[in-house]
Design goal:
There is one protein chain. The protein is an all-alpha fold and 202 residues long. 85% of the residues lie in helices and 3% in strands. The protein is built from 5 helices and 2 strands. The longest helix is centred in the first third of the chain and has 81 residues. Keywords: Membrane, Transmembrane, Transmembrane helix.
């Protein structure tokens, strides 16, 4: 075999080795990328589940803050009715912001439950039904608040509040108290479980 033939064989062999190296690198690199993404996904799933677990404890404080906002609006309704005068535009916009903040706070659990579910997190069997019940209750609380703020803000807009509006507002307030009480009882049950037993990741 002459030198040219040997040169061709060596060149072909070199190309094969290079090609195998590239393919191996792609396969290995793809495997590493998948491992990296799996680690990141599990990390986000863990952090989201931990945030949800902590939110069951923080929810009571948020509901108390919302209750204070409700009291502020009820006081303004009473003042408008007793003084027979509408509130100022600036005060109205201030109360609107209270309503927006309250609705946003009321949705915190629902947002986290949806996010946790997106990562296929499995809850402790005993707690699963309670978590779903809390999610349903927080949705009911959000609807209750939406009704409350729609009623009260409409009754305060450029007019004197009517006593019938005040009665309806107090009824919605009582409903809010009942819903949050049920929610807090379930949250207390969940917080008795340690986080390591709270859920697992698939």
């Amino acid at each position: 075999m002459d030198l040219q033939a040997w040169d061709n064989i060596i060149s072909i062999a070199s190309n094969v080795v290079t090609a195998l190296g590239v393919v191996g690198g792609v396969v290995f690199g793809g495997s590493k990328l998948k491992d990296y993404l799996d680690v990141k996904k599990n990390d986000v799933a863990f952090q989201t589940a931990l945030a949800l677990y902590d939110e069951f404890d923080a929810l009571r404080k948020k509901h108390l803050k919302i209750r204070v906002n409700i009291n502020v609006i009820l006081n303004h309704m009473d003042e408008s009715f007793e003084g027979q005068h509408p509130i100022t535009a600036n005060k109205y916009f201030e109360l609107q912001r209270l309503g927006i903040d309250s609705l946003d706070d009321s949705l915190s659990i629902t947002r986290l439950v949806i996010k946790v579910d997106n990562f296929n997190t499995l809850f402790n069997t005993e707690l699963h039904d309670k978590i779903i019940k809390i999610s349903d209750l927080t949705n009911s609380i959000s609807k209750n608040l939406d009704n409350f703020f729609n009623l009260t803000l409409n009754s305060l807009k450029n007019r004197v509040v009517q006593d019938s509006d005040i009665d309806k507002a107090h009824t919605l307030c009582e409903e809010y108290e009942e819903l949050t009480l049920q929610c807090h009882e379930l949250c207390s049950d969940i917080k008795e479980v340690k986080f390591k037993d709270f859920c697992k990741f698939t």
